[in-house]
Every structure is written in structure tokens, then in C-alpha cells.
């Protein structure tokens, strides 16, 4: 695809890799913040091409994983109501709440629909004035503006049967929380490019300075990621810790003013619980007072929820790079891709699943070579 | 609100949610052609029915009846919408079963057809579906010889559901089944992948991609016959429908206990499919096809079979995508464009659009 293919060019990738190999003199642990970057790294096998000493730690940037159990349980409760059409992005359907998920609610008669845009949910509300249409507004600074805009539109058009169940999260407070953790091994960040295309880069210099970590705004195609890695290790080798923008074709320093204005109007910053981590101060958004009537939690009294987290695994340590997946007692025995204990074992991009699959291939890490094909 | 004390969050307690696997009720993923579908068959259907033939778990059953070798298969069709660019539920009902038979090397001879109609559906729709089905059967040179009609109350169906079953003769000397695949076999696909699934999604979800994507729905009996003319010694064939190419390759890898290695850049994905999948957060390897096959061919026959496929109208885009290897038995590994590798795993349930 035009403007995608160019950023997957193998010759240019090799030049960046050569540069990275020539630059690195000692071990470095980098974290890519966004789940989309993790996906691209695994999809293209980028981690296997980097020097052995450069470790990529997959960050907390998967909105599906970090949405708190309490909110999932509220979603399940609301989606079960007969008057409700519950709309969501597809991959939220498989996220378990306490003992069940949206797939099960659907199988029990709940009207749960996958949509590709919150505006689709608003259209469903317009077409079904007798139903209550709820959109599950989750995700980072990337999904927040369209959700904000949908609520704005609902109010402007006087669509009263639409509401948003909000669990938005913000990246910078999560980076701060990671760096405050005493065991944190992360020495540099590949910041999430699309988050920065909305928010700009103003939030990061303070973090880079305070924790003495390079933060390089990074895109999602292979060349983008390699360039992000190259610039981060170059700073580390030189003892620098600046904010750099390695994704200038999408990110301006000031971000997207229209999107930020929409966020400012519709949302307000709030403390937010992250699943498995706990509350991170100021790390989320909720609907502001003006838009409170569009808040699904406000519209539907969702009380009496007792959350119960499934059996814990040690994916927290894996996610921070403190534990290699195969060092976990449950790895490969109690916990396999068919019967995962944690999300890191669920998808191909999860650290544990990748380890599991590659170990089956015959090594503790990903293979560097396979036999040529015809 | 949760407790908001300012103690630093305990990141070592991080756990991520795992999907639920033991659903007490049927969910959509059980029909997705992935791990959940396979578990339904293994845990409930196969033990309940027993039987040596069923345990082959092929696209169609290879039977011996009075000294004659037959392939027998059935398939049900619940596609929405009933009509889509490049075909209809009627075309799918014929081609789906014809192709299941073709994957045993059999040329479909006779079909049955069951209609489950929803009360209130327009008679004109039933006529159009039937007309499409009849035309597809004539094109595939197969005869519909028996049928059935049931009507369910309004709200209990999606307009029209179809079921077809078919039988065909397996030619002498032909023994096509996953277990015959060995290391060294060459893996060939008959053309562009992901087209049908994206065509359906584009109309179902009202997504527009600038160009109309037309389903590849077609009957593959003729293409398979052409391949068998080159050599009866094809090892395995699959039509990669639900679960896409990834599911088909995994099924063969597991059944034959071989590793499958593909070169990602060699897999023919049309730009419009690639673009749609990128936008929707889907992987084309997991998207359904309805007029493509993947062939596992002994190396010595690969060039000739490939040439014959390319000479056939339904195989013009045929290409070698990889081979079977001794290492990593039961696994499919893709060599990426950058020279890395990734494991192409069996999908669990339905492929879900990713948020990010």
C-alpha cells in the first residue's frame, strides 16, 4: 500500500539495523509504549533483528488489557439490560470481567454490537429512538477525541438515548508510574506516535529530564520502529536524555489543536484504575460536568458489583522485563496459549506467547535463521 | 470511586486479563473455524458420533461403498447479506460443497439442498437465491437432486439459510489427505487471498474502500482436475475458507506433523485487501476465501503443477508461498519481509478488529 510499503523497505531497514549494531556497545532495555508498536514488532520479527543487547520491553499500551475489571463488569451489567444496545470495538468483546465476557452476554440475549467508529453507535441511536445505545469508550489519547466528538454531536443533535461508558487512559502518567516503580529496568522509551499526533510532545520533556530517560516519539511501520530504536540507543550511548520526534510525518510538537480542544471541552482529567496495577493519579479522563447526562455510569445505576480478578500470573514482572517468561513456574505447564493465565500468553504479540512459540521452535529466543524456501 | 491514595502503583502485581475459554453457551467464536470450532468438534461431536471416517476430519469424507471411492461433504450457509459483490448465498452453497469435495480430488456429481426460510422473507428473494444456486450448479457441472424446505417464525432466522451436501467420485490412484504431506512438499496457493472476507465485510459493515472488492467465490473442481491431469500424486489440498490461509496451513501442519514455512512477501494479497485489513486491524492470512485453494505438492511435480494451475482461469494467480520442513512440526512460521520470522498460529475464535 502506498506510503506504507515504503516504510517496510528491507534495504533501508538493513541500513538502520547496521547503524544500530554499530552504535550499541552495552546492554540497553527500551520500552515501546503502545500495543500497536508491539504488534508491528512481532508481526515483522523486528526484535530478532536487533543486537542481542537491545531488549524491547512491551509496555502497558494495550487498552484492552488495562481497562479495569470494575468497568468491564459495569459494561457487562449494562449490556445485559433489555433496553440497551451495547456498542464496542471488536477486541473488547473477549476481555473477561468477573466470570464472563461480552461474548457471553451476547449469547445470553444481550444486544452487543461491534462497531468501527463511535459515530456508528450514534447512528444506531438515531435509528432506534426507543432503545438506549451505549458506546464503550476505552483507549488512550488516540481513541478519546472521536469519542469526545461523538458525545459533542449527540448533544448538538439532541440525541438523548446515547451514552458513553468511559474508561479513557493517558500515557504520560503511566510512564511516570513505571519510572517510579523501584524495580523499573526501562532505560529509554519509544513514545506512542499516534498518541503524540493528538497530544503533541509537550508532556514529555519534563519526564525525560526528571527520570533521565530518552523519549523518542516513534511510529508503527518497521522503518519507524527501527529509527526510534536507533535514536534511543544513540542517546543512551552518548549519555543523553532528550525528547526526539522520529515520526515527524504524523506528529507536530503542538499535536492536533482541534482534537485537544474537543478533549478539553468534553472530558476532564481524573484518577483512573489500571487493571492489575491499581490507581494511577490523573491517568484518565471522564466526561466533564457539562456532559454528565451522557455518562452511562450516571444514566444507569450500576451498583452492587463485586469484582473478582481471575487467578494471578506473574505477567507484571514479565511486562517490566524483571522475569523472562520461561522463568515463570506456570510457563508451558499451567499456562499455554490454549489455556493462558495472563494476556501476555494470549496473543502472538504477548511476551509469553512469543516465547512459548519460539521455544517450541527450538530455542529460548526467536530463531535467527530458518531454512530457505523454494 | 476506587481508593485514590498516592502510594506508588505496584507494577509487580500487574496481571492482564485472559479471554474466557470455557463458555457455558455457544458464542460466535464456535463458528469461526479456529481453535474454538475444533474444540467443539473434538469435545462434543466426534465423541458423540464416533467412527473411523469422521476421525479423518478432512474437508470431505473419503468413503468406500461397494468398491467405489466416494467423497461426501456437507456445509451450511448463514451469510449476511444474502447478495454481495461477486456472488450470493446461492453461489456459496454450491461452490462451498463442490470445493470441499474437490479437496479430496473428487469431481462433485450430485448435491442436496435444504432451505430454512424465515417467515416474511420476500418470495422474490427466495427466487433470486434459487436462481443463483441453479446457475452456480450448472456452472460447476453438478446436479441438485434432492432438497428440503422449512420455515421458521419471523425473527428466528436471517431471511434464508441454506445447507448443501454433495457426493462425487474420487478418481483411481488419487489419495489426497493431510496425513500424506511430508517435509519437502511445496506449498502453492491458487491466487489472491482475503478477497471474499473483505468483500463481505465491506458490504456488511457499510465500509467503503474507494474500490469495490468483489468476492472470489468460484467452484474449484475444474482447477483440481487440471492439476490431477499433471499428476495424481497431490498430497493435500485445502480451500482456505473460515480462518483463512492461516487456519488451513495449521490444520495441515498438525495433521501431517510437519513444519510449514512461508515467505510472507510471496503470499499474494491484493493492495485493496491489504489496505482494508490495515484499516480494520485484521490480518489477511486469517480472512476467508471462497474460490482459492492451497496445495501441498511433492517437489518433483511442483513446477508442472504450478504451470498447469496458471494456465487455468481460476488459477492464473497461482504462486509458491513456501514449503514443508522437518523442524517445528505442527507449526506454521512466516519469514517476514525484513528477514525476521513470526509464528502464524491457529486463530482462537473469530478474528476481531484490533483497537490499536
Summarize the structure.
The complex is a heterodimer of chains A (374) and B (356). With 374 residues, chain A is of the alpha/beta class.
Q: Helix/strand/pairing class of chain B, anyone?
A: alpha+beta
Strands ordered across the widest β-sheet of chain A:
4-3-5-6-11-10
Mean pLDDT of chain B: 88
Distance between the termini of chain B: 27 Å
Q: Count every helix of chain B, treating DSSP H or I runs of 4 or more residues as helices.
A: 8
What does the model show?
Chain B: Pfam families: AIRS, AIRS_C. Chain B: InterPro entries: HypE, PurM-like_C_dom, PurM-like_C_sf, PurM-like_N, PurM-like_N_sf. The complex is a heterodimer of chains A (374) and B (356). Chain A is built from 15 helices and 11 strands. By secondary structure, chain A is of the alpha/beta class. Chain A folds into 3 domains: 132 residues, HypD, alpha/beta domain 1 (Rossmann fold, 3-Layer(aba) Sandwich); 151 residues, 3-Layer(aba) Sandwich (Rossmann fold); 46 residues, no CATH class. Chain A has a 6-stranded mixed sheet with strand order 4-3-5-6-11-10, with helices on both faces. Chain A has a 5-stranded parallel sheet with strand order 2-1-7-8-9. Chain B has 2 domains: 103 residues, 2-Layer Sandwich (60s Ribosomal Protein L30, Chain: A), CATH 3.30.1330; 166 residues, PurM-like C-terminal domain (Phosphoribosyl-aminoimidazole Synthetase, Chain A, domain 2, Alpha-Beta Complex), CATH 3.90.650.10. Chain B contains 8 helices and 14 strands. In chain B, the strands form 3 sheets. In chain B, strands 9-11-8-12-10-13-14 form a 7-stranded mixed sheet. The longest helix of chain B has 17 residues. Chains A and B meet through helix 2, helix 3, helix 4, helix 5 and helix 8 of A and strand 10, helix 7, strand 12 and strand 14 of B.
